[in-house]
Structure formats: C-alpha cells, structure tokens
C-alpha cells in the first residue's frame, strides 16, 4: 500500500512554531516513527509552502497511490484550487489537522477540502496522521 503525506505551509516549522499548539517534535522525526509503526505501508512525504506545488504533487500521485493524507495548513481555508484537485483525482484523501480548527479563529472553520475528502481527522496533535493511516488498513 502506497500512501503519501502532503503538508502545506508552515508545517516545516513544526517543533519551532507555537509548540503549545503544535508540539515540540519536528515532522521529519515523527515521520520516521510512522514508518516504523506502519512497515506494511510504503510511506512518502512531501511538504511545500507553495499552493501550486501542492496541487501539482496531488495531481502527480492522485491516480496511482492508494491514499493521500493532506494537511494543507492555511490553504485549507482559502484554496479553491486544492479543493478542486481533490475532487478531480481518484486516490482517496484524508484531511488532517494537528489542532482542532473549530476551537480556533472562525476563519479556520471553513474547509475547501472536507467536502471532497474521504474523511477528516483533527485535534489529536501529530497522532492525527497515525489515525489517518489506520483508516487505510
């Protein structure tokens, strides 16, 4: 089973950015933990701060992978383009957020991804990614 985790803007700052919200672990370190926990899966990881690069990556894998776990960061709430590409592909997408977006600013309550995703997991810290992986088993 081939799964890619795609992270959007500022998620490269995990471990440094607002540790009270996002924790103190880098995503790269956490990703190594996921690979150990899920040896039956081929896990890949991609991160970009650029909306178009995220869309291109989703297009590249969206017809050949078994699953996409997407944390589009702030683009979740602003990008019609990312919402459209999720609708256009055949690979199932799980939308993930580290924090509970509904307990934060009101603009974070809107998602252009959720309506086209297989499911949404939020508010469980980095464990949200693990829960998303379990959904593909």
TrEMBL record:
It is an enzyme of class 4 (lyase). SUPFAM superfamilies: Type II 3-dehydroquinate dehydratase. PROSITE patterns: DEHYDROQUINASE_II. Its EC number is 4.2.1.10. One of its GO terms (molecular function) is 3-dehydroquinate dehydratase activity. Pathway: Metabolic intermediate biosynthesis; chorismate biosynthesis; chorismate from D-erythrose 4-phosphate and phosphoenolpyruvate: step 3/7. Belongs to the type-II 3-dehydroquinase family. HAMAP family: AroQ (MF_00169). Catalyzes a trans-dehydration via an enolate intermediate. This is 3-dehydroquinate dehydratase.
